[in-house]
Write a structure and sequence with these properties.
Blueprint lengths: L4 H22 L6 E5 L18 E7 L2 E2 L2 E2 L5 E3 L4 E9 L5 E8 L2 E9 L4 E9 L6 E9 L4 E10 L4
């Protein structure tokens, strides 16, 4: 049985996400439209955790963001849902620009850039979806020097199946 390019890419993205999570653990951390926010002095448990020395990003797809946090995590979405949000919690990237690159298969559908203005910066972008844009969608978090520091994938399926 032949392995397709999408399967190889998805496996690579999964491995990259695992590596980033492991880096966070070993570094001492236990834990379309765009929005970016973090307020100086905002009280949050993450503010007292030792930050990793290397840039990192935690990311997930969600249906909404409340109080600067995703309300859920989704991996499969039916095509009766017409919008999805990609949330990122960026660390040690202050002063840099990062981009959410939205890919449908191998086609770039959108790129949303953010200026990171603090040592921890939470950002999110959303994508309106057409009902016939079925299949795998990936969002890569790309730094201003072109490095992909995280990527996540969701599958958009036919609600009638």
């Amino acid at each position: 049985m032949a392995v397709g390019a999408n399967e190889i890419r998805n496996a690579t993205h999964r491995r990259r996400s695992i590596v980033i999570c492991l880096l966070l653990v070993f570094a001492g951390v236990a834990t379309g439209r765009a929005v970016a926010q973090d307020e100086p002095g905002a009280e949050d448990i993450a503010d007292v955790i030792v930050e990793p020395a290397v840039p990192s990003a935690l990311a997930q797809f969600t249906t909404a963001v409340e109080n600067r946090e995703p309300v859920d995590q989704v991996s499969f979405v039916e095509n009766d849902v017409r919008s999805i949000i990609f949330f990122s919690d960026l660390r040690q990237l202050e002063g840099r620009t990062v981009t959410h690159r939205w890919l449908h298969g191998d086609v770039v559908r959108a790129e949303v850039a953010f200026e990171v203005r603090g040592p921890r910066w939470r950002v999110w972008s959303s994508k309106d979806l057409l009902e016939d844009w079925l299949g795998d969608w990936t969002v890569e978090i790309v730094t201003d020097d072109g490095e992909v520091i995280a990527a996540e994938t969701f599958t958009y399926t036919d609600a009638g199946r």
